[in-house]
Amino acid sequence: MEIYDITRYLHNVRKKDGSANPIIGEDELGVTATLSYLLEDNNFVIKAYSGTGKTVIMEAVFGLLPKEYYHTIEHLSETAVWYDADNINRARFIAIPEAQKLPEGVMEVIKTWGDGRAAFRKKTDVTIDGVVEQRLAPKYVFMCVAVENSKGSSYFDAELERRCMIGHTNPTSKQTDDVVRYKLLDSAVPKSFMTTMTDDEIDGLRQHIVDAIGRRDDEDAILIRNPCAPFISEAIPTAFPVARSKVIYLLKVINSVGRFYPDEIMKVEKDGVTYGLLTPKHTWLGLRIYLNSFINECLHMPSHGTDLLKLFPDTRIDKFGLAGSDIVKMTSREIRTAAKRAGLPFTKLDPVLQGLLMTGFLEEKEEDGKKYYYKSPLLRTPESKIKWSELIQETKGFVREHYPEVAEEYIERYCTDVKAICPFSGDEVLITADASDAGSIEVVAGEFPEFFKFKEDWEWTDKNEWDEITFLLNVKGDYGKEEVKTIKSWKLGT
What we know:
Elements: H1 4-10, H2 27-39, E1 44-48, H3 54-62, E2 70-72, H4 80-83, H5 85-90, E3 93-96, H6 104-114, E4 119-125, E5 130-136, E6 141-146, H7 150-155, H8 158-161, E7 165-167, H9 173-186, H10 199-217, E8 223-225, H11 243-260, E9 266-270, E10 273-277, H12 280-298, H13 305-309, H14 332-341, H15 350-358, E11 362-367, E12 370-375, H16 388-402, H17 407-414, E13 419-421, E14 428-430, E15 442-443, H18 455-463, H19 468-474, H20 481-492
Helix pairs in contact: 2-3, 2-11, 11-12, 16-17
């Protein structure tokens, strides 16, 4: 079983009636949510605009679990949650599809859970003519929050947010186009045409996840340690102190990767405690899955803030250290117009602008009675600078020093010709000496012609008869007329 099978599952999610309901264009979010929430004790939140698929992703994640494993909390009054205490206490996981609709008292319970504490209340029991104490055992929750909802935003404050791992959906028009194209094709072809994962394969993935959860919950479960962890510091942006707390979520994602591959975890006993050692492969996969989102969280980026920043050209610094004369400044109206053209669904732009101002990514200036915004010349979104060859060498030395009992076996098995299956493409990749970051790798299998924009587009074209309309409806990439001609010529051998 590979993490890529989770991506395949997301593309083959079905409704209760058996009809297709795939997760399109949200591979990173879907895989992150599945691994980090199910295989690591972790609160997970999807903050996104209504209609962008956040609840569908949640349902897909819980679709990998037996029904008895989870309980859903919806639209409860402040007292109703206590009447449902037995069901909540029995559940391993808690789903909250619309957190912004929950009353403040229930949100306080969730905050208490976020601290790892049980929630209590006292009530009068007329059957015994006395007072009894009710208890809600601490739970890890999966919540969806509509960001345009002001009530939800007020409850989901910084205090609660620091207790959670945050994910965002893709709200762009390109994403909407992809979803619409899929639904149009789905309405036109037989069901089997849209299915790329069998029921048996999905059942196998479910069982694999359940087994991994069982090992996680076992009282004799191993303690995870990552010998690579000290050497990924350059990938962590420290511009804001929030990185101090958010780094735990990056480590949890890497840990969850290891739990997905239990046979690749090397066990070693120290002072009567059994530890499981993660590997460079696990570390690379974790960064490949979560690094982009992690950076945004460390920088305290507001919801879809990176999408908005892309509307601004970079601001250059002159020789005096000031913004250059060619600075591009935009009013809020101009930003809104540009956002609409880019397909961004900003119904309330001001909170996003204020968030970008507070974090320093945007600056503002008043001219002629108007307020203008421009991209900061001093702050850039950092990228991973990890040199994987160096990381592997440093990991070897670390293991020799701290885990000498298994060092040579660990190095031979996990630090030589490090290969992995990309979690999103299914390609086999080699983490080579020139790989500078989690996305810079050498493809050693699954190569395809360069005029295809995605491997999936090549695979679809290769196995199906040529029809231009069906091709355009089914592929992920956007292709112009000349590009389509090239692909047609390749397919037909003309």
